[in-house]
Specification:
Blueprint lengths: L2 H6 L2 H14 L8 H13 L4 H6 L1 H12 L10 H4 L1 H26 L8 E4 L3 E4 L12 H27 L5 H4 L1 H17 L1
Helix pairs in contact: 2-5, 3-10, 5-8, 7-8, 7-10
Bound molecules: iron/sulfur cluster.
Length: 195
């Protein structure tokens, strides 16, 4: 196995480190932006689906736990979860929630809101997470609020992915993952431009 291959196979470790860091210091949630920006840039400028196929730590984690550790019931995903309307609908919903999070960040930035030091799971349940706010006054409040909001999105999608992995096949989350849908759309546009 080449060095390059073994390095790429270990991307799941970064996912584990990322989610662990969020328990100690929420500001590390900003690192998750790499998971947003990298797949988009790779699908625009690189090989199609290269991020999903080789670099996504979360996808690797689901394979590792679901197939390697046999934590998956290996059932087929219901047809409606694979359908186009659900995948695009979930993508739009995810983006609306992202913009909503940006509004919460803006409210703090403009001085019209106060910090919500909790992680909001499934866009509904606020889980107190004050202990992870360890930045003191060195980091502006809006940046901390963004970190809480972004970590909420990341953790919610991880939990959804793990549940999908357990109940269905290991990589079921990848069928309706918003980043997967986004890169797929970009690849489609690139393909049409080539025709
Ligand atoms: S679909 Fe989403 S979770 Fe799956 S490999 Fe791609 S980016 Fe990662």
């Amino acid at each position: 196995m080449s060095m390059n291959k073994s390095w790429k196979d270990k991307m799941w470790i970064f996912s584990v480190i990322y989610f662990s860091l969020g328990f100690f210091n929420i500001i590390f949630a900003w690192l998750g932006m790499l998971c947003f920006i990298t797949p988009i840039l790779m699908s625009i400028f690189g090989k199609e689906k290269a991020f999903c196929n080789s670099y996504c730590g979360r996808g690797q984690l689901f394979t590792l736990l679901g197939s390697g550790k046999k934590m998956s019931l290996n059932r087929n995903l219901p047809a409606f979860l694979k359908s186009r309307w659900f995948r695009y609908g979930f993508f739009i919903f995810f983006m609306i929630m992202f913009v909503n999070m940006l509004f919460a960040t803006w409210a703090i930035f403009s001085g019209s809101g106060s910090l919500n030091a909790s992680v909001r799971l499934f866009w509904t349940f606020d889980v107190p997470w004050e202990w992870a706010n360890r930045t003191g006054e060195s980091v502006p409040l809006w940046a901390i609020q963004f970190a809480y909001g972004f970590y909420s999105l990341m953790l919610t999608s991880l939990i959804l992915g793990l549940l999908s992995m357990i109940i269905y096949k290991p990589r079921s989350w990848c069928v309706y993952c918003p980043m997967g849908t986004a890169t797929q759309m970009i690849c489609k546009i690139r393909e049409e431009e080539r025709l």
